[in-house]
Amino acid sequence: MIQEFTNTDDILKFAINREQESIDLYSGLAGQAKNPEMKKVFASFADEERGHKKRLENIQVSGQFKFNESQIRDIKVGDYLIDVEPHAGMTYQEALIIAMKKEKAAFKLYSNLAAKVEDPLLKSIFESLAQEESKHKLRFELEYDEVVLKDN
Amino acid sequence: MKLKDIITPFSAWSNIVKKPVTIKDPLNERPGADRYRGFHKNDVEACIGCGTCEAACENQAIDMVPVDGIETTKEDSGLRPLVDYGRCCWCALCVDVCTTDSLTMSNEYTWVSDNPDDFRYIPGVDKKPWDNSEKGWKKPDYSLYDPKRVDMEEIEPDDRISNFIEIVKGYSKEQAEKEADRCVSCGLCIATCPAHMDIPGYIKSIRDGDMEKGLQLLYDTNPLPEICGRVCTHRCEEVCSIGVKGDALAIRWLKRYIADNVPFEDYKRILGLDSLPENDKHIAIIGAGPSGISAAYYLRTLGYRVTVFEGKAKPGGATMYGIPKYRLPMEMLEQEIGLLEEMGVVFQFNTMVGREIKFTEVYTAYDAVFMGVGYEKPYLIAIDGEDAEGSIQAIDFLRDVNENKKPDLGHHVAVIGGGNVAMDAARVSRRFGAEVTVLYRRRIVDMPSDPEEIEGAEHEKVHLEPQAIPTRIIKDENGKVKGIEYLKAEMVADSKGGRPKPVAIEGSETILNVSTVIGAIGQEGYFEFLGTEFLEKLEMNRGKVITKENMETTIPRLFAGGDTVNKTADAISAIADGHKAAKGIDELLQANK
Known about the structure:
The structure holds two protein chains of two kinds. Chain A is mainly alpha-helical. In chain A, about 70% of the residues lie in helices and about 0% in strands. In chain A, helix 1 (about 10-30) packs antiparallel against helix 2 (about 35-60). Chain B contains 20 helices and 23 strands. In chain B, strand 16 (about 480-490) and strand 17 form a beta hairpin. In chain B, helix 7 (about 200-205) packs across helix 10, helix 12 packs parallel to helix 20 and helix 16 (about 395-400) crosses helix 17 (about 420-430). The radius of gyration of chain B is 31 Å and the shape is globular. The interface between A and B is medium-sized, with 26 and 41 residues.
């Protein structure tokens, strides 16, 4: 897999495809959800992913990759939660678990890729993408902490 | 008589022809005494705008006025005293009664201005030369009111741990009057109470010995005072002005005192419920919890016919099924429901909308509908092993116990959570002889439970394990709970200023051998009973129903209140919602006449 990433453009294409997969996933869940509020929740998650995709596309066009220097705090809220299988009657809690797990998986993927590539530029880009996913995960974890874990 | 005494009156005439002598600023040489009652100073940061100074001033020389840059908050009216030196007699009573010790006096006593308006000023805001003066009158060491509240008698932990007898005994007449005497009637509590109860008013009725007036004031805004007098979250006490320097007034216990000391058979007469108006409009209430009961009471007093649909066999919602009897004896609730039935409110128990009757039928048949369905669906802990036998939810457990079912808890219970439901589950478990450990992700100080519930739990030997994050429930070979694993947590600051976040410390795994795990991390609403057609029209945000100010939802004629609407999710907020909705329904139906 590493050999596919020989330059920045390869990485960006890969990352953009992943964001598109997320958009498709959340859009699908929005269509599948029975509860109108959950439809809106998933639609808003899809919109967030569109924003992430757009950001990457802008980088692709401009060629300007801004490296994220700051480390995002991992509060590990989702780390010990069970996996949730998507279903039509999903609750807000389940939706947030899916989103946290997804962002965590993306973070791990980019972190692993960063560890494996040797080119310093590509490594930096992967690390930066990992940080970006970590930021997305944190956003969902904070929401989970505020809404679901209010009494905990 | 000396010769000088005879000559002096005549020699004094010689001064007439002398050139006048002016001494520059002579009064600097004659400062006021160190404790002189001179011009006022006020530490506006410490002042909470309670207005006790204004109320105490016999000359009406103080007005509480808004001040630019000082916001109105729960703990602060945002007003500050303006002193009028055309009226002030410098008696210093305003300083002596100040609840925060912010108001003082300098020892300055001269102030020259040709503009009379200058002598009306806001100490501490309108800058004056004496603002930093150390000297002058300050509040004496003694206090005009007792800083210590009258203790509430309770059954001792060893005597209560084996039963469900109500723990709090209630005030005697002497105790209630003594406690009521501490109130300065500032009214900060009124704004904080979600129902905006006339707290100073009903406390005054205790001082006056007029319980009937007190009961009327309670029912003006709260038709469940016996309940709130026991289990209210009493946020009013958090802003009590005498609580700044002493113990906050025991507002909740005083409310209970009134409700407990008026014979129930006199309620209808005292509240003027013997003869209520009647109109031809019929309102449906879904859910007989605090918000539904409140809406039903006020709608009935306005003349509406009211029918309450309740899925369970008894009314009360979370108060009946979720609060243990040692905090709220059931007869209190049944008594208050009895009053509504006597008023003509019809209760249809065991009739769940969406199960026994369709929502669309209710919506079509009634002129307006109020929905107070509460939080019925618990959040899962969502960790591995939660499906084990012996892993249960607190709201199911508490309901079963209140229905006199005896749970099989085993030797050791782990309760997950830090709210009132968690404390209730823990303390009820202790009453069944189990050792109890509460695992809470944050610090004890962060627990959302009422402090007295936490204290009560500790007195009953519930072990609190803070900064503990459950990671999995361990099952035995039969799939039954055998233990729970948790990680210790470190607290990290929230960059946005929210409460600190617990972060699991890798490698700190600890296993607790337990026989039961009770999840009490929170609940959410359940709205599927509305059916798809209505559900699609119901605007919600993060599980909360969106309503207008009058509590009407995005579905016309459907009003809502209680836990599924407000952020605080407590009984008093639900009661306030029910009252607001009753007014909203009345306004809507009157406008549509």
